[in-house]
Structure of pectinesterase:
Amino acid sequence: MFLGRYCLSLFLLVSLGVELAYANHPQQEEHQHQLHHLYRYGDHHGYPGIHLKPIERAASHYQTVFVDPSGHGNFSTIQSAIDSVPSNNKYWVSVQVKAGTYREKLTIPYDKPYIVLKGEGKTRTFVEWQDHSSIVQSPTFSTMADNVVVKSISFKNLYNNDKNALNMLPAVAAMVSGDKSYFYDVGFYGLQDTLWDDRGRHYFRFCFISGAMDFIFGSGQSLYERCTISVNGAALGPGIRGYITAQGRDNSKDTNGFVFKSCNIIGNGTTFLGRPWRVYARVLFYNTMMTDIILPQGWEPWDYTNNVGLITFSEYGNYGPGANTSQRVSWMKKLDSSTINMLTSTSFIDTEGWIKTQQQF
């Protein structure tokens, strides 16, 4: 039990970001529950709860919990650590995940913002599952809360590993639906519909995204900077062409769109840069290295052959054997310099300073 002034002193240390590793103890999860209760409400001895400023303004104060399947952390599963965060949370909680492979589906629900999920490297920390059929039901990782940071971890949907274009199904590795979400050094692995960039403003930096068919899709307002896009087009089968993006902007006044800045496109097979999921789709590839897997046409109109003038697919300053635009579709947009500067700046997704705050973790 946490009692008296000793409990309050201990919790103050935790609140200030001191990472206290609990010894393996059969009651550690109960202790964690008590810790959260004290944090929010105080205790029965009359000591008040701790009321720090929300970490959106001050990222130096946060609580850390540890996930270790061997029992030497606070939790043995990642989801149980997420579940421990109080509903309508207003204070950053860092979930530190020990390297390894975790067989579980993860959800950060709408009412649990201010979570940092951090592994020990995207090539050492994996979360794997194999649901399929529906994009809503299948994600290995779903984050619906605002103000979420994910670092140094990878998410895989394994369902299509032995499939091709004839028998594969939608199988999402990650769905991102919250606003102000930052992904750094994160891996996303799938074949069809790998990363559902659903809605909200998102910043992906130094990430690795693998797939073949519409594998970055959705209506997010997102900047992908210095990411690696790995196309597994050969897995689709002979003669089947892949698509990297399927963007879902459906109104000319919508601010969303996908911007790929200083990225690398690698892989095998052949692929289009994208096709429109919705009629006002907007995608820009900027200063990106493209290998020869990119088809000369670059883009495909899908169901919007008669409305190509509404689609904004654009390329600027790219290089590599796949970046030659001489045979691109005639309806590819040529943007003016002010629009390009606006889309490729972090101000496209952040006019409030949330990225600077989240990069402190």
User: Anything to note?
Assistant: The chain has two domains: 1-96, 99-105+119-350. The domain at 99-105+119-350 is CATH 2.160.20.10 (Pectate Lyase C-like). The first helix runs from residue 4 to 15.
